[in-house]
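As a warm-up, study this chain.
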Amino acid sequence: MSTIKDRLNEIMEYKELTATKFAGLINANPSAISHLLKGRNRPGLEMLEHIARAFPDISMDWLISGTGSITGKNTDTPVVVEEPLFRVYPMTEPEPVISEKTAVLPERPTAAQTAPLGKTPKRVILFYTDGSFEEYHNN
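Now compare it with the structure written out below.
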């Protein structure tokens, strides 16, 4: 007997969808779909309702229990697919995380290379966007 994750994968194969496109069609977060497809979570009632609305030709009996066929018995009925009125898109892409172990820092110029002629900096403070800072003293 197949599992719910197997049946979700079968829907995506049947409809020729990637996990991201599937998530968009059912108005779900892609990470939630990833958890379902890995078997980490099981879909709740709301998720099943979204799938039923997005894919009215898919048998809910089959999706929930695995009995019958993917399209069910009523394949003669015309299928009306309603596109959602609004789509939710993330505002920005998350910034990549750079490990301190693998980061390559450029050579820092010396105080003599960056200071105006005849002047030497005494202290430099760098402020970062995450609220942290570094302070350098010229000894």
